[in-house]
Recover the amino acids of this structure.
């Protein structure tokens, strides 16, 4: 459910890599914004810079030039620790290969973001169980990741991304490691959560069918935005 | 034979590997490139393997060095001589009777054919007396007349061919008719002569007395090497002051010995070095017995007896045990390192399987890589191990100086560091075994783990999943555990029925473990836990009834120690989850992020094998350090407490000095001196004789020492004593006790350890002619002479009690008032004087002793102060224990290397996880802390286990000592243990600083892109 308030603003974002004497520009001066509560897809072929863009927007990588403002906060002006804390409070992550900790159970994996920021908080276990139940994983709480299917693992990953109620959730190819049917199921979950909680989702994908779930699609190629397409109207 | 087989197998394996490399070039190329792909990982693998091999080598070197040390005296006396053949006279006495070599040559030929010997050396051996001819020679205070020496005339050219050491000495020349001789080092010191000096040489007293004629001379050509067989002076040295060696022809001329007298002693060296050779003595003796030689020939095997006595101390066994544990720690490190390497290559091997490579070829990838690593690391590891051990032992070259400095007088004999201190020594075979172990263990581990990986499901391997539950393999293992349990059950029964505690112990402990593993539960946690508690309880509390009355066998104690150690390790490994829960609840109250703690402990808990191996390394090393700290500390504490028992409550024991003194006719007697000295508080004189008791269960009389005291004898109140219950009311003080003995003829009181119970009676029926050995028997034996007393009137004596039941006491026998003992028993008694000095504290007493000692030494008496005895004993114990401990600190390096490798490996494996954690909000500090907590978890568990297992096993070892001699309660040097453990822990943390720091600094974006 999208509204007209900007949550993320990107100004002249550039990212270069130096390999030997060659300088490669992964991002070439991007300017756009993300509305609160929308599902935004960043679509493009392999190597176009979408993951690099996601990393810079989410502060896990730094740009060579430009700004990323999240609710007026200049993200890359913060110190490393401040950035980390900002991420812990305001962001959730869904990875292509889940990145679940193999030696922790499902519920323990989901608890991790809560321990990162609110170690004194009570009922962490209860919060984790609630989220997992909502995602249909009530029977899997004490299983290990190796005991789950791909779809189930990705749901755990989504649960981990949501448990601390972040404002923005970054998803890097969330269905990339899944079959088509499961991928659709995951996107349905994301859609449902977006409608219920009003959280902003930014999804990186190369699959147009996945991108069609979003409110807007930012198409990229060779480090540049070639098109921004609306798919659903803004709610006033 | 075993050596040749091992060498053959090793060569075969190397050739096979090289052939396989030639046939599988692409795989060999892969393996070689893998080595250089990740330099850090390669370095860690080589380091782990190298350290393990170094520790194994060091263990062998320490054992060899220690064995050489405890056998040093034997080596100094015998060198490589293992047996001596001589001929006796008609009455069977050894008198240097000459014989022809042909009389025994058939037997010698048999020895050669059976390859039992590496040297047969006929010599002429006589006793002679020598004196330095220089006026200023010979040390003041020592014997100023002729010194009795052993002389050997030898075939000089044949010297190098005897034994394995092959000494080469320049043949001394005869100049102006004066033969040249080589002297032993101690003789040269006593005579104060150097090469070039001349000695008077005589073979009989008449020569010495005939002052009108010149005694023959010999010229000193050189000094014999210290451990050469040429230093041989006869069994027990027989009162010799050294040895003298010269060419046989020169000796013959010197003593006018005709050539028809071929030889009077044939030296035999068994095949092997100075310790290996003596192990063949039994076979040589058997051959001699079968040879049918004339009964006038005798075979002297006294070297073997000395070796047996040295072995009785079980020091070699202790060292072997400690070394075995250290070797095991080295093996664990190597195994862990190569297991991790195999896991790292899992995906590659699976990919090759997917491409169509057979399992056997896929396994070769790891075998080749392991071969490169193991060859390199075993060669370097052996060298490093030898260097480190050499360095450690070199730090203790001042060991004997420290002891000598404690004594209140200068030792008159040359006590050299080389012949007393721990010198570095390693046998060539030990180097070979070290290399073999360093080479073969990695290959075995690699082969096993890569075979396992090759059998895995390809998709699971590519996904990096752990091996699936293999039902077939589990069934095979199940069958194996059941079989082993059954076998061990039979061994247990055999041990019980055969009344063999060692076999029983091995059987019952092994049975317990295998039974637990054989039970049909997938999760073996509860069975193994119960088995571990059962084994610990059994070790600590149970001995078979038939064994209760026997001395505990040290091997049994060793087996129990291993069982306790293994139980402690298995308990923890199978219950890591319990520790995880405990720690989590502990940390829940701390500010430390619960998430950090959870991650830090979850990883080691889940990977039981890898964590278990690392914990075991720490446990092993700390276990040994604890053992060698507690046992001597407990012993030393008891010795210190027994101080007052050494000299039955007195401070000093005074004997006549062998080093000379005031021999003037008007010199004061000891009693006169003591009466005049103001430092003296009390003096007690005992006259001791060896007597025989007819009232025994033995068929012949049993001997014991009888000590007769004078009327003014005072028993110090510091000495503990007990009397028969019926006398407890009458005898309440030491004064009462002595008064009772004086007033009641036919009574005595036992001192020291053992012969009689209070109330028991003895019947004295004469003397055996020797004196017993007290707590410092060698000192007494030096002073005694063999005198026999004819059987005389029988004297009944009732033993009314015991003074200080303590084997350390100098007075071991029965005390009785001299007037109640017929004088004929005391006719040739040894007189020993004890004294106490004045002083309120140890400092004042020490000063008093010093002043008194100066006077006594000058007067020809040797005072031994109880506190000095303790210092010497403590210094000796501390010296040896410090050497052991230093070596084990080296073992700690192995544990530290293990944890470093583990954490670097963790950094590599968890890169993506670290990236994810940083992405979701975990700071650098959190990541850093998680690595530190993980290290602490593993290291502290290992250390605590090692301490617990060490304490429990020490209790077992002290039980052995308790039974046989002195009661030694367990005393734990907490300060030392805690400081050692703290340092071990701190250094372990320090080495994990680098991987922790690197983990914390990984940029999250880079980490998330990382694929193994």
């Amino acid at each position: 459910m999208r509204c007209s308030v900007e949550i993320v603003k990107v100004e002249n974002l550039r990212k270069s890599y130096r390999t030997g004497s060659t300088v490669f520009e992964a991002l070439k001066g991007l300017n756009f914004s993300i509305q609160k509560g929308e599902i935004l897809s960043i679509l493009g072929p392999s190597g176009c810079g979408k993951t690099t863009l996601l990393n810079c927007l989410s502060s896990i990588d730094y740009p060579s030039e430009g700004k990323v403002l999240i609710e007026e906060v200049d993200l890359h002006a913060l110190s490393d620790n401040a950035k980390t804390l900002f991420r812990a409070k305001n962001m959730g992550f869904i990875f292509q290969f889940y990145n679940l900790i193999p030696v922790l159970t499902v519920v323990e994996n989901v608890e991790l973001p809560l321990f990162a920021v609110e170690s004194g908080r009570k009922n962490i276990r209860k919060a984790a169980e609630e989220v997992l139940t909502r995602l249909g994983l009530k029977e899997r709480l004490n299983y290990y990741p190796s005991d789950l299917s791909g779809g189930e693992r990705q749901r755990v990953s989504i649960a981990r991304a949501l448990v601390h109620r972040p404002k923005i959730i970054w998803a890097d190819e969330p269905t990339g490691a899944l079959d088509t049917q499961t991928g659709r199921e995951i996107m349905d979950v994301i859609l449902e959560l977006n409608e219920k909680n009003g959280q902003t989702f930014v999804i990186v994908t190369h699959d147009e069918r996945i991108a069609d779930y979003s409110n807007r699609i930012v198409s990229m190629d060779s480090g540049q935005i070639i098109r921004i397409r609306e798919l659903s109207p803004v709610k006033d | 034979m075993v050596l040749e087989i091992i060498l053959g197998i090793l060569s075969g394996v190397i050739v096979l590997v090289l052939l396989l490399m030639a046939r599988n070039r692409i795989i060999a190329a892969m393996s070689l490139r893998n080595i250089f792909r990740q330099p850090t990982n390669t370095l860690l693998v080589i380091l782990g393997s190298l350290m393990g091999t170094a520790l194994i080598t060091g263990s062998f070197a320490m054992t060899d060095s220690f064995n050489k040390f405890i056998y040093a005296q034997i080596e100094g006396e015998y060198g490589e001589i293992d047996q001596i053949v001589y001929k006796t006279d008609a009455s069977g006495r050894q008198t240097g009777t000459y014989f022809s070599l042909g009389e025994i040559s058939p037997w010698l030929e048999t020895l050669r054919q059976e390859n039992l010997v590496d040297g047969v050396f006929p010599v002429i051996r006589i006793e002679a007396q020598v004196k330095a001819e220089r006026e200023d020679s010979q040390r003041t205070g020592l014997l100023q007349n002729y010194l009795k020496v052993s002389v050997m005339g030898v075939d000089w050219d044949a010297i190098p061919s005897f034994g394995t050491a092959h000494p080469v000495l320049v043949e001394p020349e005869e100049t102006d008719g004066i033969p040249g001789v080589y002297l032993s080092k101690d003789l040269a010191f006593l005579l104060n002569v150097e090469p070039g000096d001349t000695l008077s040489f005589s073979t009989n007293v008449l020569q010495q007395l005939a002052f009108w004629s010149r005694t023959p001379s010999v010229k000193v050509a050189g000094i014999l090497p210290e451990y050469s067989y040429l230093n041989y002076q006869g069994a027990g040295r027989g009162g010799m002051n050294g040895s003298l060696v010269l060419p046989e022809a020169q000796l013959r001329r010197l003593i006018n010995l005709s050539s028809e007298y071929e030889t009077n002693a044939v030296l035999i060296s068994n095949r092997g070095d100075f310790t290996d050779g003596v192990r063949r003595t039994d076979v040589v003796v058997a051959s001699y017995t079968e040879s049918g030689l004339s009964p006038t020939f005798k075979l002297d095997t006294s070297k073997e007896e000395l070796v047996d006595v040295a072995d009785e101390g079980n020091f070699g066994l202790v060292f072997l045990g400690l070394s075995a544990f250290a070797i095991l720690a080295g093996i664990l490190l190597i195994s862990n390192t190569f297991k991790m390497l195999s896991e790292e290559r899992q995906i590659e091997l699976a990919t090759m399987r997917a491409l169509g490579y057979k399992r056997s070829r896929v396994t070769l990838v790891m075998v080749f890589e392991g071969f490169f690593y193991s060859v390199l690391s075993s060669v370097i590891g052996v060298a490093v191990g030898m260097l480190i051990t050499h360095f450690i032992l070199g730090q203790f070259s001042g060991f004997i100086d420290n002891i000598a400095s404690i004594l209140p007088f200068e030792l008159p004999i040359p006590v050299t560091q080389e012949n007393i201190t721990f010198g570095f020594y390693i046998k060539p075979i030990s180097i070979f075994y070290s290399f073999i172990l360093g080479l073969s263990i990695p290959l075995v581990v690699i082969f096993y783990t890569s075979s396992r990986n090759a059998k895995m499901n390809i998709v699971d391997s590519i996904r990096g999943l752990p091996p699936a539950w293999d039902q077939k393999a589990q069934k095979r293992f199940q069958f194996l555990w059941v079989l082993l349990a059954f076998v061990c059950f039979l061994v247990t029964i055999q041990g019980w029925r055969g009344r063999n505690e060692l076999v029983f112990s091995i059987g019952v402990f092994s049975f317990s473990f295998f039974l637990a593993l054989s039970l049909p539960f997938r999760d073996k946690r509860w069975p193994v836990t119960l088995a571990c508690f059962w084994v610990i309880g059994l070790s600590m509390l149970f001995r078979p009834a038939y064994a209760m009355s026997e001395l505990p066998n040290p091997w049994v104690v060793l087996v129990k120690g291993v069982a306790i150690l293994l139980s402690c390790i298995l308990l923890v490994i199978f219950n890591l989850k319990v520790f995880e829960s405990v720690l989590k609840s502990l940390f829940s109250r701390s500010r430390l992020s619960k998430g950090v703690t959870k991650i830090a402990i979850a990883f080691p808990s889940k990977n039981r094998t890898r964590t278990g191996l690392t914990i075991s390394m720490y446990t092993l090393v700390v276990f040994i350090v604890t053992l060698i700290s507690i046992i001597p500390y407990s012993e030393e504490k008891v010795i210190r407490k027994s101080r007052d028992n050494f000299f039955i409550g007195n401070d000093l024991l005074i004997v006549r000095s062998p080093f000379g003194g005031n021999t003037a006719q008007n010199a004061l007697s000891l009693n006169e001196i003591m009466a005049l000295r103001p430092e003296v508080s009390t003096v007690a004189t005992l006259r001791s004789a060896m007597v025989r008791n007819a009232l025994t269960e033995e068929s012949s009389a049993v001997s014991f020492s009888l000590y007769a005291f004078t009327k003014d004898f005072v028993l110090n109140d510091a000495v503990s004593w007990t009397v028969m219950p019926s006398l407890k009311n009458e005898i309440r003080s030491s004064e009462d006790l002595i008064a009772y003995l004086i007033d009641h003829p036919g009574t005595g009181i036992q001192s020291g350890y053992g012969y009689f119970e209070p109330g028991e009676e003895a019947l004295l029926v004469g003397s055996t002619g020797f004196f017993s050995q007290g707590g410092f028997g060698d000192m007494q034996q030096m002073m005694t002479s063999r005198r026999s007393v004819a059987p005389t009137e029988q004297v009944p004596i009732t033993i009314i009690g015991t003074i200080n039941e303590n084997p350390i006491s100098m007075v071991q026998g029965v005390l009785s008032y001299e007037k109640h003992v017929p004088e004929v028993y005391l006719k040739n008694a040894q007189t020993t004087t004890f004294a106490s000095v004045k002083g309120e504290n140890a400092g004042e007493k020490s000063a008093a002793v010093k002043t008194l000692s100066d006077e006594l030494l000058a007067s020809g008496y040797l005072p031994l102060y109880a506190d000095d005895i303790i210092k010497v004993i403590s210094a000796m114990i501390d010296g040896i224990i410090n050497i052991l401990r230093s070596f084990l600190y080296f073992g700690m390096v192995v544990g530290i290397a293990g944890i470093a490798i583990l954490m670097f490996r963790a950094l590599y494996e968890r890169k993506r996880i670290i990236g994810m954690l940083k992405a979701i909000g975990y700071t650098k500090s959190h990541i850093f802390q998680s690595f530190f907590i993980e290290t602490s978890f593993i290291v502290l568990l290992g250390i605590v286990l090692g301490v617990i297992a060490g304490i429990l096993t020490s209790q077992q070892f002290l039980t052995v000592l308790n039974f046989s001699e002195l009661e030694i309660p367990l005393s734990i040097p907490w300060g030392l243990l805690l400081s050692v453990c703290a340092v071990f822990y701190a250094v372990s943390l320090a080495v994990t600083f680098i991987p922790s720091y690197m983990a914390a600094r990984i940029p999250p974006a880079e980490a998330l892109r990382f694929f193994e």
Remarks:
- The CA atoms of residues 928 and 996 of chain B lie 5 Å apart.
- Confidence is low (pLDDT under 50) at residues 137-144, 411-419, 769-789 of chain B.
